[in-house]
Amino acid sequence: KVLDASTLSFGTRVRWFAICFVAGILCSFLGTALLWLPKGIKLFAVFYTLGNIAALASTCFLMGPVKQLKAMFDPKRLIATVVMLLCLILTLCAVFWWNKKGLAMLFCILQFLAMTWYSLSYIPFARDAVIKCFSSCLG
């Protein structure tokens, strides 16, 4: 019952959702701004990754952590979730342990794409619309 979102009032859940979501956006923008500093790739990778984690955490306040995890690993979101979580980890590995800036940037781009695809799964027919748009543009 403690992990259920319904133990919090609706106002509290919305407030914490907004706080986490805005913090996630701010972290992502801050990371992008810090990218241009010397050694900024490490700061970018950390802040961008923290921003995505905060954005994911924000929905826990609306749905509750258990429902959130069930929704994340639903078959229609499974691939996007696994790619997103893997890229979150690989971004930090690339920047701190492997010291590969290009690889870190690639993983950040993949984080963005996976997070976008994951988010689109919550909007009815959004993925289908994106696929149709890209397929009509490509041929």
Automatic annotation (TrEMBL):
Domain of life: Eukaryota
Any one biological process term the GO annotation gives: protein transport
Main location: membrane
TM spans (from-to): 16-37, 43-66, 78-98, 104-125
Pfam families with a match to the protein in the record: Got1 (PF04178)
InterPro entries: Vesicle_transpt_Got1/SFT2, Vesicle_transpt_SFT2
Keywords per UniProt: Membrane, Protein transport, Transmembrane, Transmembrane helix, Transport
Membrane disposition: Multi-pass membrane protein
Annotated GO CC locations: cytoplasm; endomembrane system; membrane
Record has Protein transport as a keyword: yes
Subcellular location(s) per record: Membrane
UniProt family annotation: Belongs to the SFT2 family.
Purpose of the protein: May be involved in fusion of retrograde transport vesicles derived from an endocytic compartment with the Golgi complex.
Record-given protein name: Vesicle transport protein
Provenance organism: Irena cyanogastra (Philippine fairy-bluebird)
